[in-house]
Specification:
Order of helices and strands: EEEEEEEE
Oligomer: single chain
Shape: globular
Radius of gyration: 15 Å
Number of helices: 0
Strand content: over 45%
Distance between the termini: 13 Å
Helix content: under 10%
Structural class: mainly beta
Largest sheet: 8 strands, antiparallel
Length: 146
């Protein structure tokens, strides 16, 4: 799905990094919960039923988020603490924008214990538990298969 514009509650100049197909770049809010949101504008109404995303410190950090299409909540729950992308599925809806927002504070714990990446480096979290910080490495939006 093509994204026309990206807006964010803070660090808007870096918001495009959340959808640049590069997991080495990211968008992060400035630590205030009321600024922990990012909106992807699609330019025209499209059917949407899935968000795939990868969060910062994805192995060790859990983020409580909500996903809204045109301001209407379509999904709420936790993402992160995984070794891959989170796949968020919801009933297909038509909309022009998708917002991802932090609903609470992050929680850090390593559910994988002593698992070491192929690079030989363990995933170290880069922020404390209880922070109002949302860090997105990559976001992809999808619609139903036609």
């Amino acid at each position: 799905m093509t994204i026309a514009e990206i807006h964010a509650g803070s660090n808007e100049d870096q918001a495009k990094l959340a959808a640049d197909d590069n997991e080495l770049s990211d968008w992060t809010n400035q630590g205030e919960r009321n600024q922990a949101w990012i909106r992807f504008d699609l330019g025209e109404p499209q059917m949407i039923n899935q968000v795939r995303l990868k969060v910062g410190s994805h192995r060790t950090t859990r983020y409580p988020i909500l996903v809204a299409v045109d301001g209407r909540e379509v999904w709420s729950g936790n993402v992160g603490q995984t070794i891959t992308y989170d796949h968020i599925d919801f009933e297909a809806v038509e909309g022009r924008s998708v917002t991802i927002a932090l609903e609470g504070v992050t929680h850090m714990e390593d559910p994988f214990g002593d698992l070491v990446e192929i690079t030989g480096v363990r995933d170290q979290s880069d922020g404390p538990s209880g922070a109002a910080r949302l860090k997105l490495l990559e976001v992809e939006l999808y619609g139903p298969i036609q």
